Amino acid sequence: MIDPMYQYSLAWFINLFVLSVAGSSRAATVNQRLEHIHKHFTYSLYCNVCRSLFEKDKLLFGFLLTTRILGGRGLVDKDELTFLVMGSIGGPGEYKNPAKDWLSDKQWEEVCHLARLPGFSGLALSIPTHERDWREISIGPEPQRIRFPKPYDKLSSFQKLLIVRCIRPDKVASALQDFVVEIMGRQFVEHPAVSLAACYAESSPNCPLLFVLSSGSDPTSGLLQFAYERDMSDKIYPISLGQGQGPKAAAIIADAVLAGAWVLLQNCHLAPSWMPSLENLTENINPETVHPDFRLWMTSYPSSKFPVSILQSSVKMTNEPPKGLRNNMRRSFGLDPVASDEFFETSKRPKSFKALLFGLCFLHAVVQERRRFGPLGWNIPYSFDDGDFRISARQLKMFIDDAATMYNDENTVKDNNGLLQDSRDYRDSDSENPEHMSRELPLEALRYVTGECNYGGRVTDDRDRTLLHTILRRVYCLDILRPNYRLSESGIYYVPSAGSRESYIEYVQTLPLVADPEAFGLHPNANISKDMHDTSQLLGSMLVITAAYDGNRPGINPAGKGTKLAKPASIQRGGKGLAGTIEDNVVQLARDILNKLPQNFDLEACQKKFPILYEESMNTTLCQEMSRYNRLLNVARTSLQLLAKALQGLVLMSTDLETTYRRLTLNQVPQVWLKVSYPSLKPLGSYVTDLLARLQALQTWYERGRPAVHWISGFFFAQSFLTATLQNYARKYKIPIDTVGFDSEMLDMDHNNYPVGPEEGVYIRGLHCEGCSWDEHTKMLCESKLGRLYASAPVMWLKPVPARDLHTRHCYDCPVYRTTERKGILATTGHSTNFLTSIRIPTDKPASHWIMRGAALIAALSD
Q1: Which residues span the domain enclosing 724?
Q2: Do 171 and 223 fall within a single domain?
Q3: Domain check: are 18 and 102 in the same one?
Q4: Model confidence pLDDT, tens digit, residues 599-630
């Protein structure tokens, strides 16, 4: 299920069809009449469903609608659809990657697996043969619109999607949109605006209206305005649900049913225990006695506890805040209290207040829009909303006015008549320059209440808190009072000269509709990361729906003929895209993995060879690592063995085995493994390959002794390895471990250059730079290469030193995360379980630059 609120009844569907029969145009022949009904109903269905979908899911629905229609006509090949949804399953392709400079190994693997499908044979050989043409496609802004080399220029528009998925996965969403436009028409990607009047017309006293909310949205003001237009402003009764509000809401609804009033139940998700009572109330409304003007309006965030009967019978509308920096800023100037000219024009320090208020509007837009960039924007996507902005704006005016009053009281003098007057005119343009205002503006207090209480009250991750304060210092600073103060490096975004509220709105309207990443302090590659994230979400949702539609078995023919599953590379034979039944494939896959898994580590032998020593904590770390991996091996081995037996009818198929079966068919790591596993976002094939490499690394340590350079990504629990390093140093010098920290030194890229480890500390390898890169020549942190999301980090020497001896050279404390997701469960220390440590990396740029970039080191990539 994509979202629990996406539910529609058969009665609703039939009623929509009946309306289309009545509303479609007449025709002279039956065939023409049927064509008119088909077109009218298809678009009506699209519009009505889209109205209740979040923006992120509308393209998905348009594409699924298109493929279902084409599939009904036999124009979509099941194998090709399976490849689009799932991609390749298994190991590397048959040939060596011939274009490593522009084609990643993962992309090459996808190409090789696609070449096994009919119509794509020879694709892998075409890459080196027509490398120039394929390279142009790989760097083009719209690869789906570039003519493919022969014979692939004759592919259908759907088949071209598969090549885009292989070579330019970040452009899959754009390609899907073009596909829908080509087949269905542009109206099926241009989402109609939600009209309260149209929704109201479709409702009835027995048909409620439901706003499905998202972070930062609140439809109340719009609904109150609509009530005013319908002469119902005196007959609408909002009630915010929560503990103990159920009986009160029930009484209001009972009175409104008879009086013909409107009831607005806000935040239904906060009263899950009362939802069954609400369901009974709506079902028991008597159509014969209810007043025709009665309407029940509701707002709720997505909730699995929301009554299904109401979801299926109500008129649903999604309510989302505007997308884009410009639209967000424009909206902020229309929010209370900023929308009031009295508030905007009556500050005792008007120039300072307006400049800082504009900065606050910019901050409010930035903190929301950075969510679109995934972990590069925020480790955790926080639900900043209008309430944070409103209270911050009021405090800004209050703090400035109070400070101005205090300063004026200190600087009053007597005139010739003995009357008190201000020693200077605060409305004089020169009196509000940065030099004069340095003592008057309570910037530290403003940063505190905004960054710790208002917006900061939602922030739980330490690194996110650092980022929020970095953004705050850019807008709550004295320099913002200078003419045309830049809010971005390009200068496109700046603080305009003081003027009326309308003049600020006019300036905001001149800003780009779609902001470049630099507006948020991010590298241009952030757009690629965002597109990749969108593609991943889109295909993931498509996989869930496809699996549910086909009985959780991708690749199934709904007619029941030829029920096949795309086989992993390791079990394919004869180059066929599909082979064997699903059950046979899963059994073979389970056996294939079992054959690859090594025997458990011999812990007793390890403890004898590497005994617990006071002066060498690494021995304990090795034994603990082996123990953790043994547990994972036991779970994986047992689950695969039982599943194979269950599919052969030898044991009962349990719920856990059914779940494992389903995830194996989807190329996903079974949940029972993940419960005892190290954090990983890899698909099944890559996970197994990575697991085998980790096991081999430990085996090599056991056989040959402690490695000179440790592969930090291969540790099950790398924190214990880092702690052991500090502990060895602390015990050697007999100092408390909590007074020791890591200094660092960046070394060469090739770990083979270091055959012997350091006397103190450790050499580590295996980290990847995200949001930044490493310059081997300057030995400094540098910007990422355009189009390259991750770059290998050099070998690093982590040197334990007393905290007081840490170098104060110009460095960026770069966070290290276990996976690209970055977020995890927050520990009592305030750090996420995904967070490993911070490594000091030399840089010639201020640390704030890299904080805004979201620069970090990643131990394990997603694939």
Answers
A1: 707-860
A2: no
A3: yes
A4: 999 999 999 999 999 889 999 999 999 999 99
